Amino acid sequence: MIELKEYESYAIIKLMREEKANAMNLDLIEEIDAAVSSLEKKGNIISVIITGSGRFFSAGGDLGEMLKLDETQGRIFSIKGQELMESIERSEKIYIAALNGPAYGGGMELALACDIRIASRDVKMGQTEINVGLVTGWGGAERLIRYAGRSVASYLLLTGSIIDAETAQRLGIVHRISDNPLEESIKLAEELSRKNPEAIRAYKHMLSINSFDLEAIYFGRIVSSKNGKEAINAFFEKRSPRFS
Asked: Is this model's pTM higher than 0.90 or not?
């Protein structure tokens, strides 16, 4: 259900349920989670790109599977999705959502769990759960409040409205719009691979904790480290840094 490709400094996870608009059932969630866990152990991988096959990034949770769930199974389905999103959000890797097509419901939740979102010009996005009588199950409401603010999140969640790429960018949900989001994401991943990996890991930790004390700890650790000194020296010497 996914295609995982690893390159020198980045990896690409492609959702491969094209016939179901990349709707996410439990099997797909578990496959993505296994890939995330595997990549976390790869020191050479700095960034991970998530994209979809076909016309959709992801239409969201698989409604056909949801119809079969009782309350306990529904809670498990929600928890499994939450755990995946938290694994992505708390990863030391930079996760980039290359939005090749619409991202609805759980598909938008997956995109919001990533650090950076690059969208095709014709992308549509929406937390559309309320349109089928449901609510977000994988942390989408909380993340939407965090990124777009409570007022915007309230409107989008309560109405199930679908927004275009330009609106999403204006609201801070999408960072870049591109004619080829996957190609743009690969270029960004290659650019990120030239940055100090220790600083990247520190920022990922700080962004998940929001702590001034943690910022001071990491600054002291990194500015005094071998890679930190190398980065500063490279700046003064007008050359590319060589990180260890």
From this structure: yes
